[in-house]
Amino acid sequence: MNRQISLFAQAPQSPDDIDGRTSLAATFDLFADYLRGESKTENTIKSFISDLRLLAEFTGGALPTAELGVSRLERFLQWMETERGVPCSRKTYARRVTTLKVYCRWLYDLDVLAEDPALSIRQRSGPAPLSDVLTDAQVRACIVAAGEFKRGAEQDYRPAFLFRLLLQSGIKKAECGRLRLRDISRGGSEGAELFIRHKARDVYKERRLILDAETMRLLDSYARQYQVEDQLFSCTTRNLEYILTDIGARAKAPFKLSFEVMRWTMALRDYRAGVAEEHIREKLGLSRQSWYETGDKIRRLAELLGPG
């Protein structure tokens, strides 16, 4: 990609002004603006910029971004941990690695860097604990169990629809509680679509999820049975959590079934099915920063549990 060289390489006014000759220090304010656009808290932004100022202290703030290679980053981390003379906890070390990954990815996405030098840097804070997830056999058992609930003499379609919806979408409990019928469209080119919309720091965000035919069949049966006109679930999210717990108990799941378990189960199933990690990240509504840990946990779950 051809980039126009800024006449003020050391004082870029926008991300488009940044090129390989721009100094590290000159990019920090624009990087902070990027983090605000990603709805990061001011405390997070302050910590990230502080980490980058430490990097600038080690390399010299005038270092051109093009010279930010993997060996320089590794040397910085070694200096910070063992040679700086200031204690560095495992938590602080982990955050600074994350800062480098988010910052370098930002420069890479701007085409400032030809390669992401932080991509190969590994966290050394110890593996995060893995979530419970449903195996394929347990998913099938839960589908059967969800279909056994009754409402009077008929099947109660709410448990079956809720389970299938979460298995497909992996949405959070709060997102589920806010759903309206108008958030689901049948007119998409890939099939029915679910739109998750929310506002964060005066920025409206939306993500689009695909729902399969079986989920839509259950939606229609559920909507007729409960006479849904606007809000998709009229009960509280706590009651929805109880429904999931009851489904798991009927299916003899070895752990408590919850929104969080369903979210991880969806992500793992997509990963095993060959869905691109970037698509899974977007489907979950995660920032690239959050994906570093989440993606690692999904890969470890897949390795631990095998193909299915």
Task: Characterise this structure.
Helices cover 53% and strands 9% of the residues. The chain has twelve helices and five strands. A hairpin with a 2-residue loop joins strand 4 (191-200) and strand 5 (203-211).
| Strand order within the widest beta sheet | 3-4-5
According to DSSP, the number of beta strands is: 5
Q: What's the average pLDDT?
A: 88
Taking all Cα atoms into account, the compactness measure Rg is 23 Å
Name the helicity range: 40-55%
Structural class: mainly alpha
- The quaternary structure here is single chain
Q: Figure out the total of helices.
A: 12
* Shape verdict: elongated
Distance between the termini: 41 Å
Strand content: 5-15%
Characterize the main sheet.
3 strands, antiparallel
Give a quick precis of the structure.
The protein has helices at 24-37, 42-59, 70-83, 90-109, 136-146, 157-169, 173-177, 213-226, 237-250, 259-272, 277-284, 288-305, and strands at residues 150-151, 154-155, 184-188, 191-200, 203-211. It is mainly α. The strands form two sheets. Strands 3-4-5 form a three-stranded antiparallel sheet. It has a two-stranded antiparallel sheet with strand order 1-2.
Question: Which helices and strands, and how do they pair?
Answer:
Elements: H1 24-37, H2 42-59, H3 70-83, H4 90-109, H5 136-146, E1 150-151, E2 154-155, H6 157-169, H7 173-177, E3 184-188, E4 191-200, E5 203-211, H8 213-226, H9 237-250, H10 259-272, H11 277-284, H12 288-305
Antiparallel strand pairs: 1-2, 3-4, 4-5
Helix pairs in contact: 1-2, 2-4, 5-6, 6-8, 6-10, 10-12
